[in-house]
C-alpha cells in the first residue's frame, strides 16, 4: 500500500479492478467533459500563502457541518450505483466514513437500501433525495429515511432531466446495466470484482425495487427510472419536502447567486455549490470558481458547502478559505472503493486528511476553524 499516496494512485488501481462500464460511469462528465475538467483544473489556479515560524503544534481539523461535529470538513457525496464499484459499496463506504468521523450521504439511486446502510452503521447518515414524479414513492422514501434515523436530507436540485455522458451510452450503461458480450468479457477479466459481486444479495436498486409502484423486479426498473425524474420540480416543492421531512435540509446543485438567495429563503440549513461533478450542464462554470460569489450572495444566512473536483487536502483547504463550511468528495471515494473496498475509502480519506493537515500547518494555521481568505495568495 506504500505506493498508494494520492487519489490519482487509487484511481489507477480502480481502473484495473472495476469493470470498464462502471469505472467509466464514475470517471466521466457530460458531453465534452469541459465542466468536469474545469472542476479539477480551477483549483490549481488558486495559490496559497506560505507562512513560517508559527507554532504549529496541537493542530485540529475538527469543525461542524450543519451543526454536526466532523473530524474534518469533508463528507462523502451521494453517488448512484456505488454498489457496482464494489459489492456492498454503500455499506462499506458508510462504515469507512463513520470510522473516520465524516458524514456519509446515501443516494436515492444507490444499490444498497437505506435499511441496508442503517443495519451496518451506528451513527446517523445523510440521505440524498431525487424527487420523482411518483410523489407517494417520494413521501415513502422520506419516511424510510426518518425511520432509519438519517440526520439530514440532501435534496438534489440539478437533475430534473438527465445530462448525457457519452461513455455511458457507448458502454450500454442503463438501469439495470445491459450485459452485452463485450461487457461480460470485460467483467471476466476482473475476478476480484466478480467474486465479491457474486457473494452479495445486493445487486439492484434496493431503494426502488419492491418500493415503487410497478417496480417489482429488474425488468420494469429501466423504463420506470427513465420516466421518473420530474421535470416539473420547482421551488414550491421544496416547501412540502421540508415540511414532510421536518429535519435538517441541504439543497444540492446550486451554481448561481440568484438560486443561492432563493435557497436561503426556503429555510434550508445549507446549500451545496455543485454542478453534479460536471455530469449535468456541460459548459457551466466550475464549482470552486462560483463559490466566492455564492458565499457573498448568501451572506451568512445559511451554510455554504461545495463539491466538484476536490482531489486533495489542498483543495479542501482552498474551499474552506473561500468560505465553504464543508466539502464533499464523490469520485475520490469511489476510486478508493473500487480499488480496495472499505479499506480504499478509508485510505482516500486518510490521504486527504494528511494533505489537509500539512497544508494548513504550512500556511501558518493550527485550526481549520481559523482558516480564512488570509491563507490565499491573491
Ligand atoms: C454522482 N453525483 C450524484 N449526485 C446526487 O445528488 N445523486 C446521485 O445519485 C449522484 N450520482 C453520482 C454518481 C457518480 C458516479 C458521480 C461521480 C457523481 C454527484 C455527486 O454527488 C457530486 O456532486 C460529485 O461527484 C462531486 O464531484 P467529484 O468529487 O466527483 O469531482
Main attributes?
378 residues, alpha/beta, TIM Barrel, 8-stranded parallel sheet, two-stranded antiparallel ribbon, 15 helices, 12 strands, globular, binds ligand FNR, Alpha-hydroxy acid oxidase
Order of helices and strands: HHHEEEEHEHEHEHHHHHEHEHEHEHE
The total domain count is 1
Number of helices: 15
Overall shape: it is: globular
Uncertain spans, ≥5 residues at pLDDT below 50?
none
- What distance separates the N and C termini? 37 Å
CATH class: Alpha Beta
List cofactors, ions and other ligands: ligand FNR
Helical content stands at: 40-55%
Architecture, CATH level 2? Alpha-Beta Barrel
Strand percent estimate:
5-15%
Q: Looking at the chains present, what oligomeric state does this protein adopt?
A: single chain
Largest sheet: 8 strands, parallel
Q: Looking across the biggest beta sheet, what order are the strands in? A: 4-11-10-9-8-7-6-5
Assign the structural class, choosing from mainly alpha, mainly beta, alpha/beta, alpha+beta, or little secondary structure.
alpha/beta
Count the E strands. Answer: 12
Give the overall pLDDT as a whole number.
95
Q: The CATH topology, please?
A: TIM Barrel
Rg, alpha carbons: 20 Å
CATH homologous superfamily caption: Aldolase class I
